[in-house]
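Lecture notes, continued. The same structure-token format from the folding unit now serves as the input rather than the output. Read the line below as a description of shape only.
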């Protein structure tokens, strides 16, 4: 047991197993008052599993958790919260059809003298918390009407409002704009001044210099390093995470462009309660065989909505003209888009890309069920034979094809989604934030897959909020701001400064 007087929370010898997976093998973590410890490791290293244990989501199989030196065991997130431990999950845990205020204070609503919810105070308190995070949405707005980045900030607002003594942040910036990240860093600095201990899971190393004091590194469910952040180099961190030397740079193969695959003209999607008339406004683009078209923009730029519209998700509202290989097409559903050779890997993989209670094989074959049927029913034998080569191609780590997809790491879940769509034999692959929440080595694998698929003659459109990723992958870069296309650059002309200039609302008009 530690004698560190600044120690708030200590975990020691924590073990946890799931069916077919040993997630944690005797790991530990120390959280100190007024300091932030970064918990680093590849996808599947066990980071989120430990955080779920510390926040009461599920119990450990073995080990000890101490709060202020006293042993505790949480049986629910509410019990952990009562003891002052808050968490912002990587995967959103909000209730879509409740308001922002109702989500933030769920279970802690202020009451009137008669015991009813005091909505006036609830909304006023919420407005104060939202202002602290510079989140310009109404307390009465429904979560379902917010974009992913705004929902992420609501998650953070909920944790901050609880005045937690220990705050766990699991990939908190994965959907945030640069400005929102700066605001979050300011909130973290304020929390440190108040003596709050923080745990921060991230794969974005450039964030560590702004917020990090201590580092704990996981690999394969074990702790492989603990240090002050100032004593570790970036290369040392990557080496400990991966168990091998870093090869961080991605070297893109020069593009061999073929014929035009996709032409979209004046694509428009009206807005509904989002503060502007159009989510996508008069956007035109082309895509060739063997080309990677990168789309960059800040949160709310309309990137996701553009991909959804191209994929036939908004047929009643969207307008514009599409042609595939020179032939005009009109999609009234995603099924039409799939039949025409399009595939979409969505931004929110757990909500939109997977069916969590189903197996790896069932998820991977969902988009190509016709290849797995026998007598009108899915044949498990035929399913496994058809889908296994695609899962092997993406090096999906799973004990078996029967493993539930929910038990895989985020990186492996993403690979299953890519395998699912490659199994349909697409011509055009739409990738929305394909490396969101993925560690540096899994990210490199995804980059290599994208490069390989382009070399095979597919056309790929890659949306990313990480500018270095777009610049590394894309042959051309299309920039969006507030629903409009504000600039387009060749790979040679796409400098960070020019792309950001076109993406910022105040400057985009000057770049167009």
């Amino acid at each position: 047991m530690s004698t560190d007087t600044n120690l708030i929370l200590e975990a020691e010898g924590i073990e946890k197993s799931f069916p077919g997976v040993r997630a944690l093998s005797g790991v530990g973590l120390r959280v100190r008052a007024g300091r932030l410890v970064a918990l680093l490791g590849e996808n599947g290293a066990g980071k989120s599993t430990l955080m779920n244990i510390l926040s009461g989501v599920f119990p450990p199989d073995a080990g000890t958790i101490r709060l202020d030196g006293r042993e505790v065991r949480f049986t629910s997130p509410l019990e952990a919260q009562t003891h002052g431990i808050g968490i912002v999950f990587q995967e959103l845990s909000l209730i879509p059809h409740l308001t922002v205020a109702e989500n933030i204070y769920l279970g802690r609503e202020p009451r009137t003298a008669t015991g009813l919810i005091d909505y006036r105070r609830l909304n006023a308190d919420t407005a104060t918390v939202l202002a602290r995070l510079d989140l310009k949405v109404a307390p009465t707005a429904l979560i379902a009407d917010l974009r992913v980045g705004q929902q992420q900030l609501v998650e953070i607002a909920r944790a901050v409002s609880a005045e937690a003594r220990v705050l766990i942040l699991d990939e908190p910036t994965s959907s945030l704009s640069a400005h929102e990240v700066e605001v979050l860093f300011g909130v973290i600095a304020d929390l440190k001044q108040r003596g709050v201990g923080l745990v921060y899971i991230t794969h974005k190393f450039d964030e560590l210099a702004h917020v990090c004091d201590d580092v704990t590194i996981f690999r394969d469910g074990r702790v492989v390093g603990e240090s002050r952040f100032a004593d570790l180099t970036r290369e040392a961190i990557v080496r400990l995470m991966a168990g091998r030397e870093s090869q961080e740079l991605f070297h893109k193969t020069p593009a061999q462009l073929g014929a035009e695959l996709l032409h979209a003209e004046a694509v428009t999607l009206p807005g509904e309660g989002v503060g502007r008339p159009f989510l996508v406004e008069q956007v035109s683009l082309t895509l060739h065989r063997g080309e990677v078209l990168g789309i960059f923009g800040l949160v709310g730029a309309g990137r996701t909505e553009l991909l959804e519209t191209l994929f036939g998700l908004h047929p009643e509202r969207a307008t514009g003209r599409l042609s595939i290989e020179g032939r005009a097409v009109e999609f009234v559903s995603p099924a039409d888009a799939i039949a025409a050779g399009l595939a979409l890997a969505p931004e929110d993989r757990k909500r939109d890309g997977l069916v969590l209670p189903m197996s790896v094989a069932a998820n991977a074959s969902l988009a190509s069920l016709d290849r797995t049927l026998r007598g009108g029913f899915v044949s498990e034998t035929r399913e496994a034979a058809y889908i296994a080569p695609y899962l092997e191609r993406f090096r999906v780590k799973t004990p078996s094809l029967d493993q539930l997809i929910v038990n895989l790491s985020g990186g492996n879940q993403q690979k299953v989604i890519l395998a699912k769509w490659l199994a349909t034999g697409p011509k055009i692959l739409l990738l929305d934030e394909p490396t969101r929440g993925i560690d540096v080595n899994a990210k490199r694998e995804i980059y290599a897959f994208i490069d390989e698929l382009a070399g095979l003659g597919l056309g790929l459109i890659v949306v990313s909020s990480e500018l270095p990723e777009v610049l590394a992958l894309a042959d051309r870069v299309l920039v969006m701001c507030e629903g409009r296309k504000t600039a387009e650059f060749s790979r040679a002309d796409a400098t960070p400064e020019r792309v950001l200039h076109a993406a910022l609302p105040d400057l985009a008009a000057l770049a167009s």
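Point for the exam: The two ends are 61 Å apart (CA to CA).
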